[in-house]
Design goal:
Blueprint lengths: L1 E5 L6 H12 L2 E4 H9 L3 H8 L1 H17 L3 E4 L8 H10 L2 E6 L2 H10 L1 H6 L10 H18 L2 E4 L5 H9 L5
Parallel strand pairs: 1-3, 1-4, 2-3, 4-5
Helix pairs in contact: 1-9, 2-4, 3-4, 4-5, 6-8
């Protein structure tokens, strides 16, 4: 079984993914962490030094490798699903894709509370990491995510453990 987690940064994909993988006795793969490991630099540095297209190309390679790895819980970077080739790979793999939805105000609170995010992640719009940026990016990404998902779970007020329990209640997981 393969389970994929999608959502905006700060929604808990990595934290929930590790817990879920442990509960299901599966490997855990964080595509963003693999990108950083492979590139030897932060995602922000990749964007600044090599450009977003280079980052997206490496991301697509890592997405494919993660899917090909077999039974695992995979935390996909928020933008990984934007690319059609990644969408096709996910569809063809029959992945159970769970959208960890979180309200923008709570996402901003979580991002601002994480000291590593600002230095490691690039801004995605000219709004510079603000609430307006989160809302803008979600408006663009959510329709794509919803065409692929198996389930959507609102994690705004859930602990990571509660989110895992909600995912385990999704049929087929």
């Amino acid at each position: 079984m393969e389970v994929g987690l999608i959502g905006y940064r700060g929604c808990g994909k990595s934290t929930v993914g590790k817990l879920l993988a442990a509960r299901l006795s599966l490997a855990f793969i964080d595509t963003d962490a693999r990108i950083v490991q492979r590139a030897g630099k932060t995602i922000r540095d990749i964007f600044q030094q090599d450009g977003e297209p280079a980052f997206r190309n490496l991301e697509s390679q890592i997405v494919r490798e993660a899917i090909d790895a077999g039974s695992a819980v995979i935390a996909f970077g928020g933008g990984a699903i934007d690319r059609e080739q990644n969408q096709t790979a996910i569809k063809n793999a029959g992945l159970k894709l769970i959208y960890l939805k979180c309200e923008p105000v709570e996402l901003l609170r979580r991002i601002e509370a994480d000291p590593g995010t600002a230095g490691a992640r690039p801004h995605l719009t000219s709004h510079g990491g603000s609430l307006a940026e989160i809302q803008t990016v979600l408006t663009r990404r959510e329709p794509i995510w919803r065409t692929l998902l198996t389930a959507e779970i609102d994690v705004t007020r859930l602990t990571p453990g509660q989110a895992v329990k909600a995912i385990l209640n999704v049929p087929g997981i």
